[in-house]
């Protein structure tokens, strides 16, 4: 039986008609009364149908007229360029990346009340806090002494069993004994890098890449080789192959194959197989960060890179931080032929994690509630991404480009006129709006004119106003550049007004207040 709500099923029917051209931009959707009669649904369901399509940018409400098909503004934006992969990359020394990131975090913390579009996680209300709290309460009732007993070094058994079972969905076959629980994915990456590399070694990374990884590399005294990365298919295997034949000291490769941070790219299975084979052929450890795959808009989970591993050469790292509960900081690692070394490094570095959060997460993940939560989370994030992309297309200066990923929490935005994203960050921060400048995601200057913008907050008046102002700031700065084109910003669409449709009912936009603690940036 299809568990999809009826209004979503009907919305999908009309979206298919729009995509097929049966309903064209400007065409009027059937009235609410007509929808009720045709599909035998209530007024509430008809309104949900229309509002969901409006929220995703496919239709617009016109006062006293109803709903009309519109072409989302984001679809008219030019796609981002593919990176050049025919030149050997220059190794980056990563001197000062920590200082750059520290400056960003410190300045962001100085602004207390703000619209924070710089992080990469969802709003608190998107996560099942009550279900997890209830699970913890039940556990403490059954095992009142749980907090007084240390957890096993590898992690709480039931939690690892659930992770092992779910790994089958990604094409992996793991036993609970092969899984080591960590303090988020960032500790898993630390352990993986310490297991395979020494200070002074070179590690190949995607470019651009998550700035937290750059901090880890610098803290471990590792150098990095930035490999060109496609906004669509991820790390360029051709460029990596060229780098391997150019440099003889690459000790590891780190990749995010699904919804790469910040690009949002998704690596096809054929690329994953080639990458796993290439690294195995040259005996270079391949470290997979699989933090985001559960946020991919797909009927089945993607295959993990680890599933193509034939010799234990792939180290798999993952986390629940983005998909279940940011407050729990639960991650894990399975390290192939480096498993024993990783376990000893974990023992030396942080010992075992506390058991209550693992047990509660495991108990919830073993129920159907977890899958329902993931479906709801993906649906909310999809609507928020598309609304944010439409706002950027309407509010930002002409020539702005975005990469709209098939899932996840963020958009990667290319500013026109090679406008410095750091200047945009500083100007926006003065108005209590926080974004992540592209300069954080590389030690080169190649991404200085990009922004990463979070889509994890419910789209309402506060987010809309902040994006409108951010676009105005970018437009003003573009106009001030020497010799810059004077192209005006795209005209913002007028706010949708309630559509009465003769029923007395009206469409409405929900406002939301956005705030976030800045202590755990992602």
From TrEMBL:
Domain HTH gntR-type: 4-72
Biased composition (Low complexity): 487-499
Xref: CDD domains: AAT_like, WHTH_GntR
Residue ranges, compositional bias (Polar residues): 509-522
Keywords, ordered alphabetically: DNA-binding, Pyridoxal phosphate, Transcription, Transcription regulation
UniProt cross-references to Gene3D superfamilies, sorted A to Z: Aspartate Aminotransferase, domain 1, Type I PLP-dependent aspartate aminotransferase-like (Major domain), Winged helix-like DNA-binding domain superfamily/Winged helix DNA-binding domain
Sample GO molecular function, one term: DNA binding
Domain of life: Bacteria
Region (Disordered): 487-522
Family to which the UniProt record says this protein belongs: In the C-terminal section; belongs to the class-I pyridoxal-phosphate-dependent aminotransferase family.
Record protein name field: DNA-binding transcriptional MocR family regulator
Organism: Variovorax soli
């Amino acid at each position: 039986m299809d568990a999809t709500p009826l209004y979503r099923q009907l919305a999908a029917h009309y979206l298919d008609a729009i995509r097929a051209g049966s309903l064209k931009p400007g065409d009027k959707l059937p009235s609410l009364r007509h929808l009720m009669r045709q599909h035998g649904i209530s007024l509430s369901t008809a309104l949900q149908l229309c509002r969901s399509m409006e929220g995703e940018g496919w239709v617009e409400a016109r006062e006293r007229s109803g709903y009309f098909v519109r072409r989302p503004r984001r679809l008219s934006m030019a796609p981002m360029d593919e990176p050049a992969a025919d030149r050997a990359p220059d190794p980056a020394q990563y001197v000062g990346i920590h200082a750059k990131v520290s400056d960003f975090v410190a300045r962001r913390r100085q602004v207390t009340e703000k619209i924070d579009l710089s992080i990469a996680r969802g709003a608190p209300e998107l996560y099942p806090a009550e279900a997890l709290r209830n699970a913890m309460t039940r556990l403490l009732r059954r095992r009142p002494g749980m907090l007084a007993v240390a957890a096993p070094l590898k992690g709480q058994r039931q939690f690892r069993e659930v992770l092992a079972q779910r790994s089958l969905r990604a094409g992996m076959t793991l036993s609970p004994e092969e899984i080591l629980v960590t303090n988020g994915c960032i500790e898993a990456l630390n352990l993986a890098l310490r297991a395979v590399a020494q200070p002074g070694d070179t590690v190949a990374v995607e470019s651009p890449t998550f700035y937290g990884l750059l901090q880890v590399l610098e803290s471990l005294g590792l150098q990095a080789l930035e490999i060109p990365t496609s906004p669509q298919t991820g790390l360029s295997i051709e460029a990596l192959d060229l780098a391997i034949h150019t440099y003889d000291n690459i000790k590891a490769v780190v990749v995010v194959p699904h919804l790469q941070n910040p690009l949002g790219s998704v690596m096809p299975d054929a690329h994953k197989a080639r990458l796993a084979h290439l690294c195995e052929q040259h005996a270079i450890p391949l470290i997979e960060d699989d933090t985001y795959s559960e946020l991919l808009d797909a009927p089945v989970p993607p295959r993990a890179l680890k599933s193509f591993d034939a010799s234990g050469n792939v180290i798999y790292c993952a986390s629940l931080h983005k998909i279940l509960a940011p407050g729990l900081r639960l991650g894990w690692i399975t390290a192939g032929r480096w498993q024993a070394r990783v376990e000893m490094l974990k023992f030396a570095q942080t010992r075992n994690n506390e058991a209550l959060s693992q047990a509660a997460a495991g108990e919830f993940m073993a129920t159907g509630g977890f899958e329902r939560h993931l479906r709801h989370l993906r649906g909310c994030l999809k609507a928020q991404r598309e609304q944010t992309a439409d706002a950027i297309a309407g509010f930002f200066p002409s020539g702005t480009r975005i990469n709209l990923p098939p899932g996840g929490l963020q958009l990667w935005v290319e500013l026109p006129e090679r406008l410095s994203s750091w200047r945009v960050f500083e100007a926006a921060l003065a108005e209590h709006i926080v974004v992540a400048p592209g300069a954080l995601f590389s030690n080169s200057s190649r991404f200085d004119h990009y922004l990463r913008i979070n889509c994890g907050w419910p789209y309402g008046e506060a987010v809309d106003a902040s994006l409108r102002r951010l676009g105005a700031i970018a437009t003003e700065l573009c106009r001030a550049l020497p010799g810059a084109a004077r192209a005006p910003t795209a005209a913002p669409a007028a706010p949708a007004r309630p559509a009465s449709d003769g029923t007395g009912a009206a469409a409405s936009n929900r406002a939301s207040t956005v705030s976030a603690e800045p202590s755990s940036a992602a």
